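[agent] plan:
  1. take the single chain provided in the ticket
  2. run structure prediction with default settings
  3. attach structure tokens to the ticket
  4. add a short note for the reviewer (M.T.)
[agent] executing step 1
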Amino acid sequence: MEYTPQQLAEFLQFAVNYLKLNEEKIEFISDDLHLDPTKDKDIQKYIAIALAEHGEPQTATSTGISTNTPGDGGNSRGPWQIHIPTWESTLRTYEVFDKYDDIKEALDDPGLNALAAVIIAQQKTGDERTDGINNWQTVMNKSKTEAGTEIIEDDPYGIKSGKGQVYEFTDKYEPQIMTDTLGQEQQETELIQDKVGSIQKENAERFKEDSMNMSLIKGKLLSAQEGNLFNPSETFVHMVGGRMAQTSGSAINKTIQNSLSNVDVSTLSNNMALDLYSSLVNPYVPLNAEYGGLSAEGDTTNIMDKLQTQMFEDDAKYYDTKTKKIYSGSEINKKDALVRNAHYSRLKNSTSSDDLGNLMLTYQYILRNKNPYVKVDDSISLEVANNKKEDNEEGVLTSMGNAMPDDNAGANFLNNFEKVLRINPQNGNKKVNNNVGNASRDFMRDR
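[agent] step 2 finished; step 3 output follows
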């Protein structure tokens, strides 16, 4: 993927919105080494860094385009080339990053990549070589000779001075997109809700979801242990390494049956049963033209339209399979609104005349935004809240590993439609951490 200065500015807009909505009393630092993503001069420096990171180091120039091409053998990701060995531990203090098993998936999303860049550009490490924007090699180039002598080239692209060639492109965006970010986000949310509301008036169908109780969960686990929970001939979608993949019910049945072969489901504690259900059964969603009582119509994205406001009931309880916490529907709608709206808008803008491709976009939306949450009854909600565990069952999940079906079923349904589609992240909430300790000081050694 290639990104223009306009798009880079929009990704920074996303980062500002996220931090303002999810951090208490967020205040951005703005000085020679720390960049405030709400100030025009600092926005241009952010853009300059993203352009330089994908520029020509020999001439310290850029074509005015940034990309998502990984660097450093895959360790540096996205338009801002976030260096994973240096920054992963810091970024995982934010739930929006910590929800990812592989942080590469998060950093390959340009919006979250911009968020990571803002977090890094605000860091005070106590070491001038790694403080704030000096973390980037394009701002302070750090290398060593064969003899181990350190060589430092300060500001090779002229980013700090503001005189580099990259600044030919950094003002190529509309400044108004960076103003009144929270008001803009609210307006966008209202527009989406109005659009979905009009669709609902035209068609009274509503998303339907039954609450899970412990009897249902253990019953499904028993069926899975017997190898007959999923329809063998049906196609299912699930997440593999951050991407949407297809498999068959028969493959899932075999995998889960093997995983549960040495487990006595009848004696599992409720918490362990819930964990097993979440990790082994819940990840799979049947791929067809109907979901939760909603039928695909028109360009097939009408299901996504309705789910945008219908999928979480305010007073209902939902189990987050990632954090293993219980949230009310209203809490989910509040904490996930920003990322979910951005994901919805991106997917809707990606629709085409290919109805089957559009349906796959809908399932991207479902897997990322709805499927991680399981609607549960009050008994499970109280069970999780009380955090009841049995010591003699510790380690059962670990011993099972991360088994996944390895076949690529679904050719009949998809009619040879072979696509692996990117998924965008969910929202989260963590405090700002402006001190990174030894991680950033190790930056020179790790790069």
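[agent] step 4 note for reviewer: Residues 176-183, 198-203, 388-402, 406-447 have pLDDT under 50 and may be disordered.
[agent] ticket updated
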